[in-house]
Amino acid sequence: MTQWDLADRQALQLELSCAATVTRSLRRAAAALTAMLLALGARYADEQGQIPPQRQAEIRGALDAALAGLAVDVAAETTRAVAAATALAVRQETRALRALGVDAKSLRLRIADPVLTQAGQSSARVLAAAIGDAQRFAASVPLATVAQLEAVAAKAAGVAPRVEANVRFLTNRAINETTRQLVREAATLAPPPIPPTERFPLEPGGFNPPQQLPPASPPPLEPARPPLVPPTLVLVWVAERDACLTCLALSGHVSDPNRGIGFDEDATFSPHGAPPVWPPGMPLLAPPRHPRCRCRLRIITADNTLVPETLRLNAQRSVLRGLSGHDSNRSRMTAARRLLAHGTGLPGAVHERATRDLARGRFTKPRGPLAKRRYPQSR
After folding, report:
1. How far is CA 339 from the centre of its chain?
2. Is residue 207 one of the residues assigned to a domain?
């Protein structure tokens, strides 16, 4: 497992943990609502699952109170989740900067992203909208059968996943925005001073014992090395192997935040074109590209062309093998056909396999870890 893989695993674990923490009380309230509806249905419904009209008003009153009880506080925990994601990115990228010869201890990190500064309010708005949808659905259902009660319970159970998705989006954005700001701040660092190395003539026998520097040391036998200059750092977009066709098109793209250069908002392999940037109206400076994006920014030196090229080739391979787990079979087929016509730098065997898959109308089932994932075969 590479250092990048380990960092991705840590980030994913943090996302899931934060999402579960933020929605813990919300899920408990939704579970209580479901249990209440099922209990009322079992108590009042006849053998055909019908509920008497005189009991429907009682159930609706209890349901309205339970739906209102879903309005728990998620803002504070969401703010803490963003702070935890920022701290994780600092720990991970500080090690990466150190490996590139940059001392990041003196960095003054300033996260001014408006989406992250209002993260708590964002989760509160998502929760309020989800509860409103559940209340409107409940109002449209007469609650005359057990099946209708189960439908309302299912709608209420869908409130928490919407908040979780928002929290995961925010934590992913916090990690990538922190990485971007670290590169910006690293450009302001002065070169770290390197003390000159003093050398002394060898003692007879070739052994030079440890000794204290004399007050007035003789000049060194060779000039001191010049201070190392921190390399110019840039950001490279890294997509998962089974990412969507839009994120795969961005994989390997390089951005220099110190020059105000973002990423290509129109890049996509999808035949349907690139979706609007999320959140709407924001420039594409870092992942997430869309609400369910799991892409990541990585710090590399500006003269490193191997990593971006490798990422682009891997993305093209994913397209030709139909590995995207987020697009329909028709979209993946069209993307592979267009990419073959455009040409790639991949080996001929990859092209031949893709040609065979296109001829029979379906992709060869992947092997290894990706074989356990589900891929859409039609639509």
Report:
1. 26
2. no
Residue 248 in this model has a pLDDT that exceeds 50: yes
Indicate whether 378 belongs to any domain. no
Percent with pLDDT over 90 in the chain: 69
Determine how many CB atoms are found less than 10 A away from the CB of residue 55: 16
Range of the domain at 64: 3-186
Look at the chain and report how many structural domains it folds into.
Answer: 2
How confident is the model over 269-322, as pLDDT tens digits? 999 999 999 888 889 999 999 999 999 999 999 999 999 999 999 999 999 999
pTM of the full predicted structure? 0.82
